[in-house]
Amino acid sequence: MSRVLILGGDGYLGWSTAMSLAAKGHEVSVVDSYLRRKIAKQTDSEALMVNPDLQERANIFRSITNISIEVFIGDLCDMELMQRVFTASTPDSIIHYAEQPSAPYSMRDYASARLTLDNNLTTTFNLIWAVIEHNPDCHIIKLGTMGEYGTPNIDIEEGWIEINHKGRSDKFLFPRAAGSLYHTTKVLDTDLLWFYVRTYGLRVTDLMQGPVYGITTRESSMDDRLLPNFHYDDIFGTVINRFLVQAISDVPLTVYGKGGQTRGYLNLIDTLQCLELAVANRVNAGELRILNQVAETFTVNELAAKIKNVGDRMGHRVQINHLPNPRKEMEDHYYNPVHTGLIDLGLSPTYLSDDIIAAMLEKINIYRNRIDPDKIMPRVNWN
Amino acid sequence: MSRVLILGGDGYLGWSTAMSLAAKGHEVSVVDSYLRRKIAKQTDSEALMVNPDLQERANIFRSITNISIEVFIGDLCDMELMQRVFTASTPDSIIHYAEQPSAPYSMRDYASARLTLDNNLTTTFNLIWAVIEHNPDCHIIKLGTMGEYGTPNIDIEEGWIEINHKGRSDKFLFPRAAGSLYHTTKVLDTDLLWFYVRTYGLRVTDLMQGPVYGITTRESSMDDRLLPNFHYDDIFGTVINRFLVQAISDVPLTVYGKGGQTRGYLNLIDTLQCLELAVANRVNAGELRILNQVAETFTVNELAAKIKNVGDRMGHRVQINHLPNPRKEMEDHYYNPVHTGLIDLGLSPTYLSDDIIAAMLEKINIYRNRIDPDKIMPRVNWN
Fold first, then answer.
1. Does residue B383 belong to any structural domain of this protein?
2. CB atoms closer than 10 angstroms to residue B233
3. Which of the residues in chain B have pLDDT under 70?
């Protein structure tokens, strides 16, 4: 077992990962600036359940499990804080979730875009330098996104591609062309990390994650106050989570445009498996390992139909509404990502079954009185 | 003729371009924060000749030619200044040189790297947003660098490449893998520009320039106080300019490593031609035109031999010294960049002849008493 520092430990994935790795015996520290909570408040996009603050959640988790998670609160754009957290926690691995994660927020206006660019790049940059200066062997595990690749007309490889051109060949980063500024900041992160990996021999794993769905993990099922922040709004809600809340609250599922947009999806509990595998399987010095972290692909229409099917069976009257697409994206396109790297490391994928959909709908139903329909319709348009 | 705003107008290229375009009849405004002057002072890397400040140079230029160049002084990382300059100058084209341009400085330490990342990305970002908000038809002419591509084992196309993969194909940005953080910030600039071009239909030309050499242009030859800042130090000096000063001052030419590094070079007067062509040939809305701005390629050894040859003939005793390479780069590699785009637009390239070398040596010789040999040896190592 090892020491793991999680940047962005208050988030949907950050907090779930912290508990999961702590329960597996790792010594876990977390740090967060509550940026997402602040933006959620500013944009009327609060999560469905009440989430106690990070220290309180760590206290609740310890009171149940007797396992400690060390908590730091502060902004990692401040290099002094980054240094302090790094030297206090002496991590073997750092999991980097500390980014402004909303595509629509990043497309709202200059100020939101600037905040996204500054926060995401500066945090990644400070992390790189803390590692260079304090422990170049520390394994950086960075959450990328499948959205970095966009929707190319060729198969999406796992981060790299061999290009044959005019009789010669070389290996390059797989081309990236993202659909929002948020996703583009992750492209910039990749460029920065790859530069410092090849220049100073750092060790980096980049997990190219698709949209995640799910609420309950082994640890959060012990106490609802341990649930991750679950967003169903247009700003922070990922599509499956949004549709589930809409199905419960009799709001027609908000399919953007034709609904032919295909993406690779992942259950929250698979994210936890993937992170555990990444921590356990370090990379060599000077290696940037890139893994596509998806279990299966669906069109938005397929997702809507699946959720309608289960919702209707449970007595909801689920409708589907095709809205004008607020995003600039192709609505009918080729999409074939390779995603065998994590399976080779031992991932056992969870597929989106009717039972899983039903269990999520039941959980959300408990909180149905807290749903605010005003949070559902898209409020940012960049098409 | 049109209105042209030049960001970074105090620089080697910026000031030369300002005079050149003004002389051709364009209405030229320039803006600069004197960042390069500040860094040069901090790092003991001042230019060979004394360069009056920007307003003074504009006054001298007007007193000789009766042509005005409007001067703004300030930091374009401040969005209010960017907006003010943009609305005051109402440009048809913006030429963006306003970046921290030194690779070694960007590799010195955390603070220098952070300054380079923040300055370069924020200026580009603010420029993009000023254009989006005030005049999306404004043509952005961005100085990229051939260094963005690195030294791939395939031919370097002009910015884009068609990739055939597993029986399918698509067109992508040509892969980039730069050799310094400075060059990497230009890769990030490209990613940002391409994102906003395809999302909001901006018009961008990216000029991928090789190392530039030269001192005198048609305008600066009128008065030495109009000369561009000419650097021969390890921080800001490009390789040919450095070698010329070394030849004059009996310092052995500082070849880094084996000297097999091949790059594409360009005379300063060709840069002026290229910028004039870019201004005259606007791109369509939603187009990112990328042009490789080089005239010819040389290895460092070939450059050293050429300069030694001419220098010896002029009575200098030029020696060549292979230093341990302070940079992380291949010293023997394939290099074949396509560079026909600018020729198709009308560029008539200037080649590095013995006469041109001799003329530069003569000009530098006038200033030989100002040469400080302490500025010549590499002071930043990232190999």
1. no
2. 25
3. none
- pTM exceeds 0.90: yes
Q: What is the pLDDT of residue B1?
A: 86
**Distance to chain B for A90, nearest Cα, Å:** 20
Q: Is B301 part of a structural domain of the chain?
A: yes
Q: Which residues pair with A7 in a beta bridge?
A: A31, A96
> In A, which residues are within 8 Å of B118 by CB distance?
122
Residue B95's SS3 state is strand
What whole-number distance in Å separates Cα of residue B81 and Cα of residue B122?
13
What is the per-residue pLDDT for B80?
98
Q: Please report whether residue B26 resides in a domain.
A: yes
Task: Please name the member of A110, A152, A166 whose beta carbon is closest to the beta carbon of B155.
Answer: A166
- The parent domain of residue A144 ranges over 3-375
Q: What is the residue-wise DSSP string for A147-212?
A: GGT---SS-B-SSEEEEEETTEEEEEEPP---SSHHHHHHHHHHHHHHHHHHHH--EEEEEEE--E
Whether residue A383 lies within 8 A of chain B, CB to CB, comes out as no
Residue B323, domain CATH: 3.40.50.720
Q: Is A145 a catalytic residue?
A: yes
| B109 shares contact with chain A (CB less than 8 Å) | no
Question: Is B178 within 8 Å of chain A by CB?
Answer: yes
Q: Which residues of B touch A122 (CB under 8 A)?
A: 118
| Residue-wise pLDDT tens digits, A139-157 | 999 999 999 999 999 999 9
d(CA B125, CA A332): 31
Burial class (CB in 10 A: 0-12, 13-18, 19+), A289: buried
| Domain presence at residue A382 | no
Q: Are A95 and A76 in contact (CB under 8 A)?
A: no
pLDDT score, position A1: 86
| Residue where the block lists tokens 């936890």 | A272
Q: Cβ separation of A191 and B184 shorter than 8 Å?
A: yes
Contact B191 A187 (CB under 8 A): yes
Instruction: Indicate the number of domains in chain B.
Output: 1
